[in-house]
Amino acid sequence: MFRKNSFSGGTHPHDEKQWSSAKAIEIMPLPETVIIPIQQHIGAPSDLIVEKGQTVKKGQALSSSSKFVSVPVHASISGTIKAIEQRPHPLGANLLSVVIESDGEDSWISDFKEEPDYFELDVQQMKQRIADAGVAGMGGAAFPSHVKLSPPEDKNIDTLILNGVECEPFLTADHRIMLERPDEIIKGMRLIMKILKIDTGYIGIEANKPDAIALLKEKVNKETGIEVVVLEVKYPQGAEKQLIKASTNRDVPAGKLPMEIGCVVQNVGTAVAIYEAVAMQKPLIERVVTVTGTSIHEPKNLLARIGTPFSELIACCGGMKDNTAKIVNGGPMMGMAQLTDAVPVIKGTSGILVLDEKTANMQEENPCIACARCVDVCPMKLLPNHIASYVEYNKFDKANELGIFDCMECGTCSFICPAKRHLVHYIKLGKALINEQKKAV
Amino acid sequence: MERRFVISPSPHVKDGDSIQKIMYAVVIALIPAGIGGIYFFGLHALWVIAVAIAASLGAEALFSKMMKRPIQLQDGSAIITGLLLAYNVPAEVPLWLPAIGAVAGIGIGKMAFGGLGYNPMNPALIGRAFLMASWAVHMTVFRTAPKGGTLSGIDAITNATPLNVFKGAREILTNSVNYSAEQVTEATQAITQLYNSSGNLFWGRVGGCLGETSAILLLLGAVFLMYKRIIGWKIPFAYIGTVAILTWAFGGTNGLFSGNPIFHILSGGLILGAFFMATDMTTTPVTFKGRLYFGIGCGIFTFVIRLWGGYPEGVSYSILLMNLATPLLDRYTKPKVFGG
Predict the structure, then answer these.
(1) What is the model's pLDDT at position A4?
(2) Domain residue spans in chain B?
(3) What is the mean pLDDT of chain A?
(4) Domains of chain A (ranges plus CATH)?
(5) What pLDDT does A11 receive?
(6) Is A253 in Cβ contact with B340 (below 8 Å)?
(7) CB contact under 8 A, A13 and B7
(8) CA of B202, closest CA in chain A: separation in Å?
(9) Which of B61, B56, B58, B97 is nearest to B78 (CA)?
């Protein structure tokens, strides 16, 4: 059967993955200090359960969460808690963080071996292990995974889609995970499918990763119910709703979640973390980070401890060039520019981008000439130019009418705009201001 | 002190295209038709073009200064206005005419509304409308026959443009009782010859405004702009398609479906208008359906003016009228949000 594995709209930025896609994941040397913000996920903050001066082991919980939409954080090295204070956070502002000084031992709190009968565990127990391990979506948004795996009773979930699209330019972390840890991905996938009581699963991969496609196709050959879906190379192919459209041809209703049409989407890296959480009860204390960009000497894919300062990862890649202008947490399309390289790697840090002045977007804004390119490329079928203008002129009700909250902030409109208008920025600002107004009422 | 880095909103990479590149691509696309105008109508056409461009740039600089705004001549948009205005006047006009037209177009049509991106109507067409209202004779009387051809594109008549001949002949044929048998025969012959003159229309061996006569040279530029994805297919195809269907169905002299769409597509300013003026980004809708309706609307107006209006040609007024409908079209053709 012919299936068009894509979505409508979207654009084609240079993928720039050649810098790091062939570099095997390299384990970073033990950091001397880690800074672990107690909130790294979307949802309620967790409560601190350690004190300054206390010694901790690698994998020990630093916080616990009583709320459902929340996950704890764990020590990623063994050592002494030097401080508990506000530190710069990669998602902006300062946040309460636990600063741990290494004792050089790097000793684990337990030995984390794969339990032989892990797959037979009770589903509730599996979810509890995922929550306790602090697993949150590793594609960037960092939504607590156990919540995604607990759809309400009335939602009939029938399909899991594993997101191996990695449509952000420059990033190759998921690509390397697929090449180097395919068995764990499939084990994690099986666990998720068991938890959701479903037997259909897709792994969505963009056509620009033929080696990963071939490897995973070979691996799933023996599996039933799992299929690799090859997707058109187009941004934002990896956006949840667009990925679902491309792999299943289902439309997630506007303003609703994928579970509405029976789908759950998880990142490939998250699948590995879920496997480790359930099978070994191993907490999420490290992740693969692509350190790349035009101003890095030697781009790499690093396995870094959560809490390692960006500066150390950059140093591990030969340092940055003199023309460095910008450091970004995440990919170039949706990532956030950082004021300082002292911020730590968090659970959602898929990449660290070091950009020079020319590549970094610092062009002046020009007036909109209504070329309509943003309208043509918007994967949500919005009118970004009109929404942005309404926000600019404080007409928030009009912006709301045009569906400002349906925008997922993928940045395609700002990317394509020949007038270099900061369309997504206006839209984000508009959302924040509308929410503030709502609160005030 | 710790090093500080640049903070700016995402995305951190951008497409390489810019307003300037778009505008200069349009300028390049218009060059073949300009060269054609100079070849067919003589060197005076070059001076008309030069004056129109110079006056557009000068007017934009002057008005920007008066409005205490930065002067942005380098964006290239004023050059397009000048070129299009020059292409929309007869080649033999006195040079003060395009100068005044350019000042009016830029001043009233563009800067009065806030400059680039804010004008509701096409500035070049505003300039043209201004000249039509003020110096109708200069704007509607064509004297220069093209090199290697006649003003009408046919041999029998040498004092009018093809659309003028068509309008006169059609008037005679549709009200034949009021005319002598001789006149009716002449009119029938004229229409037949016009319909057979598409070669002249295609190459540009006919009279008309400076840059509108050669279909092939305009299409050359249009193909370039489509290849560069600066203009889409929706507006020009909807526009030309509508004119073709309507003139075929209702534009003939022997009842329904006796019209000649090829003649109507190639004559007058339709090709220039459909590909270069009805596609002006700022003054046309941004939605898919809006652009289709815009083209269809232009086509209906052009057809109505050509057949029953006071002027032989209606491209520029059609586009101006539809320009005014653009905000409305955008509002009523809002696309359905994904999953909505």
Answers:
(1) 54
(2) 19-140, 162-332
(3) 94
(4) 31-111+283-356 (3.10.20.600), 113-280 (3.40.50.11540), 373-440 (no CATH)
(5) 94
(6) yes
(7) no
(8) 30
(9) B56
